[in-house]
Amino acid sequence: MGGLLGPAGGLKEIKCASRLDVAPAADTVLQVASGLDYETEWVQLRAGRPPRTWTVDVGSAEPADMDVLAELEEWQRLDRTLFVYYSEAAQLDNLLDPEASLMRPGRWVGVQRGGSSIEPDATGPVFMHSASGPPDGGWVHLLDVPVPYWRTVTASMLLSAYEGQTARLVVTEVGIDGTDGPSREVSTSGVRERVTTTFRTSGETVALRFAVQGAVTIARPQVTLTDGPRDWVPGQGCRHAVLVAPAGEAVQLAIPERSWGRRSSYGWSIREVRRPD
Predict the structure, then answer these.
(1) Helix or strand or coil: residue 109?
(2) Do 125 and 83 fall into the same domain?
(3) What is the mean pLDDT of the chain?
(4) Which of the four pLDDT bands, split at 50, 70 and 90, describes residue 192?
(5) In terms of domain of life, where is this protein from (predicted)?
(6) Tell me: the pLDDT tens digits for 140-165?
(7) Overall number of domains in the chain
(8) Does 41 map to a domain?
(9) Among 17-21, 116-120, 127-131, 181-185, which stretch is predicted with the lowest mean pLDDT?
(10) Residue-wise DSSP of the chain
(11) Which of 72, 210, 234, 71 is nearest to 140 (CA)?
């Protein structure tokens, strides 16, 4: 399994990395200064999350393995478009971007911020990045999470229903023309229950839309390319990315008599581009 890179509807699987380093493009802490008494320190934090960079190394591959990356480089150069990027880890752990997975109002439409809560089977209150939907039965939405077609997807989240109501999660597949495709609904009348749906996307699906109704607590949304739910982690997906360093090649072996011709190691970089919601 390799990373997925490309526009919504055109995600391409690139060669599996033998080494993948992810790091913020800038420090979160801008400055640490001591007060006049030298006993107090002041910390200045960067507003917002710094963009991420991924440095990808492939130890050995044939030229045919890298055709997809070459196509994406030309696509970006000619069409001047931004890409979606899902690393191998994101596909297994959580495709959502960090803000969506932490229920930020800028990503979820119609939510109110929550706070501390109690996890199932926990011994006491813990802080969770949660949100609430309208008590009058209105819906909250997370729009257009790009996914590959013909792949198994598991979507889940923690929901608590308003008293006397049923909390519902509806996951809808979206076609390339923006029309709705098949949808699945799961529900609960309980408190802090994880609802899950697993399905295989159709050949026309380019994204998923999420809608939640009747929930006083919405927390820990997760999307994975697996056949069942996994332990929750913050989202690792990237909604806007560019190839900032074209693939560099170091030839390891060249044999004209072989159909593949040569084998080489490759390396390239992907950078997240921050965009206001």
Answers:
(1) strand
(2) no
(3) 83
(4) confident
(5) Bacteria
(6) 999 899 999 999 999 999 999 999 99
(7) 2
(8) no
(9) 116-120
(10) ---EEESTT--EEPPPPSEEEEEESS-SEEEEEE-TTSS-EEEEEPSSPPPEEEEEEEEEE-GGGGHHHHHHHHHHHHH---EEEE-HHHHHH--S-HHHHTT-TTTSBT-EE--EE--TT-SS-EE--EEE--TTS-EEEEEEEE--SS-EEEEEEEEEEPTTS-EEEEEEEEETTS-EEEEEEEEESSSSEEEEEEEE--TTEEEEEEEEESEEEEEEEEEESSSS---------EEEEEEEEEEEEEEEEE-TTSTT-EEEEEEEEEEE-----
(11) 210
| Same domain flag for 71 and 141 | no
Same-domain check for residues 110 and 203: yes
The token duo for 135 is: 């008590």
Residue 257 CB contacts under 8 Å (≥ 6 apart), including other chains: none
Claim to verify: residue 113 and residue 79 sit in the same structural domain: no
Residues 118 and 144 in one domain: yes
178 and 214 belong to one structural domain: yes
| CATH number where 199 lies | 2.60.120.260
Whole-model pTM? 0.84
- Domain housing 11: 4-28+48-87+239-272
Amino acid, single-letter form, for residue 150:
W
- CA nearest to 132, candidates 146, 152, 111: 111
> Is residue 90 exposed (0-12), middle (13-18) or buried (19+ Cβ within 10 Å)?
buried
Evaluate whether 171 touches 184 at the Cβ level (below 8 Å). Answer: yes
